[in-house]
Specification:
Elements (H helix, E strand, L loop, with lengths): L2 E10 L2 E11 L4 E6 L5 H9 L6 E6 L2 E2 L5 H7 L1 E4 L11 H7 L9 H10 L1 H5 L10 H13 L5 E5 L7 H16 L3 E5 L3 H7 L2 E6 L2 E7 H5 L2 H7 L6 H6 L1
Parallel strand pairs: 3-8, 3-9, 6-7, 7-8
Antiparallel strand pairs: 1-2, 1-4, 4-5, 9-10
Helix pairs in contact: 3-6
Bound molecules: adenosine-5'-triphosphate and magnesium ion.
Length: 243
């Protein structure tokens, strides 16, 4: 396993946000993490990237215990995160924002920049525009592009489709698939459970800080409890679309 999270507990003050989360992500996989608002999805990603300390448990990345490694070293080790919301630098241009993503790397970044512009032609067109004046969807792309500039081995994506129009949602899911196809492992948090499960190899369901289900994504798509809770009831969407 590339990434192994075992029994991780995280508190905000006295409130337990994670109560012993165990999950793993293998090299080359897309793993989805789904769950209701407040279930602990963002906290799980932040804990993996080193933005929240663990109260219990451990995180092993590529065979190495990184539970106490500071966040900036985890970026160098190969853990990349595109945060929930945007978290880009509004006063910097698109290109400057992208270059910030590679600050920790040595050597030329021209190849990575060209790859990001190939994945997101919109960013290439707007390379001199200030980040803060990009639209919501464009800022989302910029945040993902910036995370890719660090050449992560695993990319943590927190709600990449949030706030996007349906056509852009499809585009973002296509791009995630493309990024994975180029060799980057992905841990994906999504409210858009249907599309996330269609894209992912495996998935975990998080409820109030605990993993309550884990299975191949295709199985969860057919799971009555998952359908009722996260996929808009027992409506047979695919069947309806095919008729
Ligand atoms: N900075 C914080 N201070 C206090 N409590 C927090 C903080 N951040 C998160 N929490 C609490 O921790 C729990 C998990 O929050 P988290 O943001 O991980 O949920 P989530 O699954 O990402 O939800 P959403 O789908 O709404 O983004 C929630 O109960 C939340 O209120
Ligand atoms: Mg969240």
């Amino acid at each position: 396993m590339l990434l192994e999270v075992t029994g991780v507990a995280v508190f905000y003050g006295k409130i337990a946000a994670l109560r012993g989360v165990t999950l793993s992500v293998d090299q080359g996989e897309i793993v989805a993490l789904i769950g209701a608002n407040g279930a602990g999805k963002t906290t799980t990603l932040k804990t993996i990237s080193g933005l929240r300390p663990l109260a219990a448990g451990r995180i092993v990345f590529d065979g190495r215990d990184i539970s106490r490694m500071p966040g900036h070293k985890r970026v160098v080790a190969g853990i990349g995160q595109a945060p929930e919301g945007r978290g880009i630098f509004p006063g910097m241009t698109v290109e400057e924002n992208l270059l910030m993503g590679s600050y920790a790397r040595k050597g030329s970044v021209a190849k990575e920049l060209a790859e990001v512009y190939e994945l997101f032609p919109r960013l290439a067109e707007r390379r001199s525009q200030s980040g803060g004046t990009m639209s919501g969807g464009e800022q989302q792309m910029l945040a993902i592009g910036r995370a890719l500039m660090a050449k992560p081995r695993v990319l943590l994506l927190d709600e990449p489709s949030m706030g996007l129009a349906p056509i852009l949602v499809n585009q973002i899911f296509d791009i995630i698939s493309e990024i994975n196809g180029r060799g980057t492992t992905i841990l994906l948090v999504e409210q858009n459970a249907q599309q996330a499960l269609q894209l992912a190899h495996r998935a975990y369901v998080l409820e109030t800080g605990r993993v309550v289900k884990s299975a191949p994504a295709s199985e969860l798509l057919d799971d009555p409890e998952v359908r009722a809770a996260y996929l808009g009831g027992d409506l047979d969407v695919e069947g309806a679309a095919g008729q």
